[in-house]
Amino acid sequence: MASTHTSPRDVVFPPGRQALYEKNRYSPAIRSNGFLFVSGQVGSRPDGSPEPDYQAQVRLAFDNLNAILQAAGCTFGDVIDVTVFMVDPEKHFEAAWEVVGEYWGSAPHPTLTGIGVTWLYGFQFEIKVIAKLPEGAAR
After folding, report:
1. Could you report the per-residue pLDDT of 10-68, keeping only the tens digit for each?
2. Which of 1, 38, 4, 20 is nearest to 131 (CA)?
3. What's the CA gap between 39 and 123, in Å, rounded?
4. Are strands 79-87 and 35-42 parallel, antiparallel or unpaired?
5. What is the distance between the terminal CA atoms of the chain, rounded to a whole angstrom?
6. Which residues pair with 11 in a beta bridge?
7. So what's the pLDDT on residue 84?
C-alpha cells in the first residue's frame, strides 16, 4: 500500500511579496535535500505589474531572484543550474546578456538552458534556478 503521508514543503518567501505568491498559488522557492529550487522570476514591480523597460525588467528579475536567494541564505554564487525564458530572443538576447553579466559573476558559471517563448504573462524575460544550500542552511 502506498503511503499517503506527505511532508510539508519547506517554502522560502522573500520579504514583502508573499501576497503575490499566495494570489497566484505557487511557492517562490522550496528547500529540499540540500538544494533550493526557485520558481521562475520575472521583472515584476511590487504590485506584480511588468517593468516596461526591457533591460530594467531583466535587472528587476535578477533583483527578485536575489531576494529569494538571500532569504534562503544563498547568493548567486550558490546557483548551479539556470533556465532563462525570453520572448523574441533573436531581438532581445544581446540586451539581456549585457544585464546578465552584471549579476552572473566570474567563471566557473552555472549551467544554462535558454528557451525562446511566445508568451510570459506580459513579461519578456524569466529566470529560474537551482542552488546548492550552504552548509548549515541545508535541510
Report:
1. 999 888 776 677 777 888 999 999 999 999 999 998 888 899 999 999 999 999 999 99
2. 38
3. 15
4. unpaired
5. 28
6. 30
7. 97
Q: Whole-prediction pTM value?
A: 0.89
Q: What is the DSSP string of the chain?
A: ------PPPEEE--TT-HHHHHHHT--SEEEETTEEEEEEEE-B-TTSPBPSSHHHHHHHHHHHHHHHHHHTT--GGGEEEEEEEEESHHHHHHHHHHHHHHHH-SSSPPEEEEEEES-STT-SEEEEEEEEPPTTT--
Domains of the chain (ranges, CATH numbers): 10-132 (3.30.1330.40)
Burial class (CB in 10 A: 0-12, 13-18, 19+), 27: middle
